[in-house]
Amino acid sequence: MKVILNHDVPGLGELGDVKDVAAGYARNYLLPRGLVYAYSPAAIGVFEKRKAEIESRKAEKRQTSLDLKTRLEADEVNLDMPAGHSGKLYGAVTNASIADELVKKGYDIDRKRIEVPGRIIKSVGNYKIMIRLYEKDEATLRLVVKGHEEKAKAAPNAPPARKRRPEFQEPAANETVGVESPVSSHEKNSPAEV
Q1: pLDDT confidence tier of residue 13, bands split at 50, 70 and 90
Q2: Architecture of the domain delimited by 68-148
Q3: Does 169 score more than 60 pLDDT?
Q4: Is 146 within 8 Å of 78 (Cβ atoms)?
Q5: pTM over 0.85
Q6: In angstroms, rounded to a whole number, what is the distance separating the alpha carbons of residues 35 and 72?
Q7: SS3 of residue 20 by DSSP
Q8: Which residues pair with 123 in a beta bridge?
Q9: In terms of CATH, what superfamily is 2-49?
Q10: Are strands 76-82 and 138-148 parallel, antiparallel or unpaired?
Q11: Which of 1, 85, 141, 186 is 20 to 30 Å from 172 at the Cα level?
Q12: Burial 56-95 (b: 16+ CB within 10 A, else e)
């Protein structure tokens, strides 16, 4: 089914775009929410009148994208991750961890727009990360992954060390424990005393 987008729809397009979508998707999701109009001469006429507004919005998005690109390429992201002495990370750097770090710096970029070489980074070093912006614009972000060694910690829920009970302590060197002399046991059982 051919439709004209009335709003920007992530994964589909932006305002004014003509798209071909599944009839069920249009009928059950897009049309009831007012996100699209069915493609018709009347709808084309409405969007022709709004053409100047749509173009000004797109020009504004291009300018915002260009500003964001210059800011990202001038910036550098540093991540400090736990790593072994050889530089191999105990975890991995993914597009989600880079997006979280960018949010801390004041950038609002969807993690799906961040392209990590090899999908994950597993070692310390310097990397170039591609970030897809508006239309065909891409920014190259410098990423520095530093590693630090973590010291082994006791488990927080580990039971305390058990103390030895007194009955299991070893006897002193001059003590004999639990051994009766053969004479005393013989004297108890002798038939003369019975």
Answers
A1: confident
A2: Roll (3.10)
A3: no
A4: yes
A5: no
A6: 32
A7: strand
A8: 88
A9: Ribosomal protein L9, N-terminal domain (3.40.5.10)
A10: parallel
A11: 186
A12: eeeeebeeebeebbeebeeeebebebebeeeeebeeebeb
